[in-house]
Amino acid sequence: METRTGSSEGAPRVRRWPRRFAVARWLGLSLLTAGLLLGGFVGYQLWGTSLIARHGQSGLRAELEQRTAAASPAVIPYEPDPGRAPAPVAPPPGLRDLEQADLAAALEAAGLPPVSAPPEDASGAVLVAEAPPPEGEALGRVRIPIAGVDWTVVEGVSPGDLRRGAGHMPGTALPGQPGNAVISGHRTTYGAPFYHLDRLAPGDLITVTTVAGTHAYQVVRSMVVRPTEMWVTEQWQGSWLTLTTCHPRFSSRQRLVVVARLVGGPNAAVLVEEAP
Amino acid sequence: MSRWLNRLPGPAAVRVVLVVAVAAAVLALVLLGYEWLGRAFLDSGGTMG
What does the domain layout of chain B look like in residue ranges? Predict the structure, then answer.
């Protein structure tokens, strides 16, 4: 620790600082560095990751448009899988079934798009089916105006997938198909797609648009569980949508889980009857 | 800062390249640390399991 000062002879004279100042200087520098690192962490998590997600979303939207234009969903006969159990989440008392005319009005009132019609000239139980895209590619678009959600969903739930938006858990049903479609999303970082998921209550509507069409779901239950409670991802009779995110905000200690049942879309007529 | 730069070996251009490389490596490490901390404590992405 030294300071150069001028002298009458012209040559710089070196003055040594006392040792206690050296300690204070290093302490100050350490605190300053720690503060900069901490500020950088907060800035990166809140804003930096959002920029990454926004960039990912624009790519996914373009991918989804291409996929939708190129896809030709197949109409296949449907037979229920006897191995699937009834869903363990019963609708709360008082949650009425939506008639199709009510659904159209409710979707419009909620600012959601109309659902796709079932296939024409279908004899017997048939489904509009689609194949899942490869992991990392766009699967569909989830819209929940009440929770500020309008995100393109990527296939996969790896950290890399979830940097681009909400992710569909591979191995679970696709939205609108028989079983339970699980979609996970960040709560506070990477654009926070599910920041307001706690606003959802039984009866609220969700739409998911895939290449097979637009499917409507009605929220049945919202709950907080441990991350290890894998029963929420099991496949059930009928068609369900399960949204998962971190809880509480700014913590990954628990999961907020919203379970919704299919109420409209190209496959609703077949699958609604299957669900108890 | 310039004192540190002058202490590095080699011509000025090499020293500048060296500083830029070290700064990029440090930045990458810091971002990796941020990623890990964020995923472990702040927001894991909401996945189950």
Answer: 2-41
Q: What pTM did the predictor assign?
A: 0.89
3-state secondary structure labels for all residues of B11-28: CHHHHHHHHHHHHHHHHH
pLDDT over 70 at A3, yes or no: no
Least confident window among A135-149, A181-195, B1-15: B1-15
Domain range summary for chain A, segments of one domain joined by +: 44-274
Which residues in chain A are closer than 8 Å to B43, comparing Cβ atoms? 45, 186-190, 246, 250, 252
Taking the mean position of all CA atoms in its chain, how far away is CA A132? 17
pLDDT value, residue A273: 77
**Four-CA torsion B31, B33, B34, B37, nearest 10 degrees:** 160
B39 CB neighbours in chain A (<8 A) are: 159, 252
**Which residue is listed with tokens 């004899």?**
A123
DSSP one-letter code for A61 = H
User: What are the residues facing A256 on neighbouring strands?
Assistant: A224, A245
Task: Enter the ipTM.
Answer: 0.82
Yes or no, beta carbons of A169 and B37 under 8 Å apart: no
pLDDT at residue A275 greater than cutoff 80: no
- Of A40, A44, A184, nearest to B46 by CB-CB distance is A184
Residue holding tokens 């520098």?
A: A29
A185 has pLDDT over 60 = yes
Pick the CATH number of A44-274 from 2.60.120.460, 3.20.20.140, 2.30.42.10, 2.40.260.10: 2.40.260.10
Q: What are phi and psi of A117, to 5 degrees?
A: -80, 155
Q: Using DSSP bridges, classify how beta strands A179-184 and A167-168 pair: parallel, antiparallel or unpaired.
A: antiparallel
Q: What is the pLDDT of residue A216?
A: 97
Within a 13 Å sphere around the CA of A225, how many CA atoms are in the beta-carbon half? 21
